[in-house]
Design a protein that fits this description.
This is Low density lipoprotein receptor class A domain containing 1. InterPro entries: LDL_receptor-like_sf (IPR036055), LDLRAD1_C (IPR057430), LDrepeatLR_classA_rpt (IPR002172). It holds the Pfam family LDLRAD1_C. There is one protein chain. The protein has 167 residues and is α+β, with helices and mostly antiparallel strands. Among the domains are: 72 residues, no CATH class; 34 residues, no CATH class. The chain contains three helices and seven strands; from the N terminus they run H-E-E-E-H-E-E-E-E-H. The chain has a three-stranded antiparallel β-sheet, with no helix packed on it. A hairpin with a 5-residue loop joins strand 1 and strand 2. The mean pLDDT is 84.
């Protein structure tokens, strides 16, 4: 008799919990933190397997790279960049333009105005194939190819590409 009463009591509690959940709705799922850093130190997106970290620029590229395809979900990719978490994007100095966060500070002028290569970037040295200067054109941010040196066209604001730089 005692076991029957306990069993009925347990069933009543379970029924009450289910009834409460149906009546008032289940609590919302907590948001999953998907921020990660890739093996080459880039901002990334963590897949459901909690192991795979995709570079930001590989999210919403129409290629399912996470096992469950969460990198291409409609709620994530439906209204770019507004539907993306803030850590995956970088707004250029002209806020109408944006790039994926892993494209910031990569040595390339992805914004078109070099705003993605200024500020907190620790840009690598130009290397032997490039000349360091403040370029006149936004195609280059801090270095120009040495092939542009002494070509009769100003590429550096101080004209150093025409009088100091050697090919």
């Amino acid at each position: 008799l005692c076991l029957t009463v306990v069993a009925l009591l347990v069933l009543a509690v379970i029924g009450a919990v289910i009834g409460f959940a149906v009546t008032f709705g289940l609590p919302p799922r907590t948001a999953v933190n998907r921020f990660c850093v890739t093996s080459d130190n880039q901002t990334g997106y963590l897949c459901d397997d909690r192991v795979t970290c995709l570079p930001a620029s590989r999210i919403c590229n129409r290629i399912r790279e996470c096992v469950n395809g969460e990198d291409e979900q409609e709620k994530l990719c439906s209204d770019l960049p507004n539907s993306l978490p803030g850590y995956l994007i970088f707004y250029c100095s002209n806020p109408a333009y944006w790039i994926y966060a892993d494209k910031k500070c990569n040595g390339a002028n992805d914004c078109g105005d070099c705003s993605d290569e200024k500020g907190t970037c620790n840009c690598p040295p130009c290397g032997t194939q490039r000349w360091s200067c403040t370029p006149v054109f936004y195609e280059y941010c801090t270095c120009i190819p040495r092939s542009l040196c002494r070509d009769g066209i100003q590429h550096c604001s101080d004209w150093s590409d025409e009088y100091a730089c050697n090919r």
